[in-house]
Amino acid sequence: MYQLSPSILSADFMKLGEEIKKVEEAGVEWLHIDVMDGIFVPSISFGMPVISSVRKKCSLFLDVHLMIEEPARYISQFKAAGADMLTVHAEACKHLDSTLYHIREAGMKAGVAINPATPLCVVEEVLGIVDMVLIMTVNPGFGGQKYIPYTTEKVKRLKEMLKNKNLDVDIEVDGGISKNTMDLALDAGANILVMGSAIFNGEAKENAMMYQNRLEAYEHEHSVDLRR
Questions:
Q1: What's the average model confidence in pLDDT over 59-81?
Q2: Residue ranges with strand state E in 57-169
Q3: Which residues contact 78 (CB under 8 A, 6 or more apart)?
Q4: Is 187 part of the annotated catalytic residue set?
Q5: How does pLDDT run across 1-22, given as a tens digit for each residue?
Q6: d(Cα 125, Cα 129) in Å, to the nearest integer?
C-alpha cells in the first residue's frame, strides 16, 4: 500500500491544529512527526507533549521518527503520548535489535532509519523484526533540503534485498521529496513518501490532495506487488 506521510516539521506552528486538519481533510492517512534532540542531529524540535496534543485532535496514523541518541530510553513515553509507529536510527542505537523488540512489545510498529551514507548492511540483520525501513534521502536535521540522487539506487538495493528475503516490509523515503523526485523514489521501490515543504509551503490541503491523487494514480498504473 502506498502512503503519503506529511511532515509537520514544515507546518506553521502558530496554527498546527489547522494545518493537520487540512491534510486530514485531503484524505491522507499518515502524519510524520520528527523528534530531534540537538545531539544526534543539530536541531531540536519537539517531543511527547506535542505528540499527545496531536493525538487528541486527529485520528491519523502517527509515524514518529526519532532522531535522538539511545531512543530506547523513551519508548514507553512515546507509546503513552500516542505514537503508532516509532522509527529509530540504526546509527543512534547501541543495541538496535533490543530497541526494536521493545518498540513492538510496547504495542507500536517498529521502523529503522539510516542516513544517506550509512550502508544497508547495518540494518540487514534486523530486517526480519521491522515493519518499515526509512531511507533518508537527505542528511537529517533540517527541512527543505535537496534530494540526494545516489539514495535512489540505495532504495533499489533495499527493495531487492527484501524481495530476496521474502520479507513484508515497507520502504519510506524522507527528504527532498517533491513533484520532481517522487517518481524516482517510487520507481526505485519506496511506498511511503514523507513530504514536508512540498505540502506545507502554500495551501496544505490543496497540495496534499494533489500529491495524494498522484500517489493513487501511480498505484493504479503500476501493479507493483508490495505484498500488503
A1: 97
A2: 61-67, 85-89, 109-114, 132-136
A3: 48, 51, 64, 66, 86, 108
A4: no
A5: 899 999 999 999 999 999 999 9
A6: 9
* CA-based max dimension of the chain: 47
176: left (phi over 0), alpha (psi -120 to 50) or beta: left
Q: Which residue is catalytic, options 37, 63, 170, 174?
A: 174
Extract the runs of DSSP E, i.e. beta strands, from 72-210: 85-89, 109-114, 132-136, 170-174, 192-195
Query: Is the per-residue pLDDT at 227 higher than 70?
Result: no
Over residues 42-56, the pLDDT tens digits come to: 889 999 999 999 999
Q: Give the chain's end-to-end CA distance (angstroms, integer).
A: 6
**Contact partners, residue 186, CB within 8 Å, separation at least 6:** 2, 193, 215, 218, 222
Taking the C-alpha atoms of residue 162 and residue 179, their distance in angstroms, rounded to an integer, is: 27
Q: Which of 34, 37, 63, 170 is catalytic?
A: 34
- Active-site residue 34, yes or no? yes
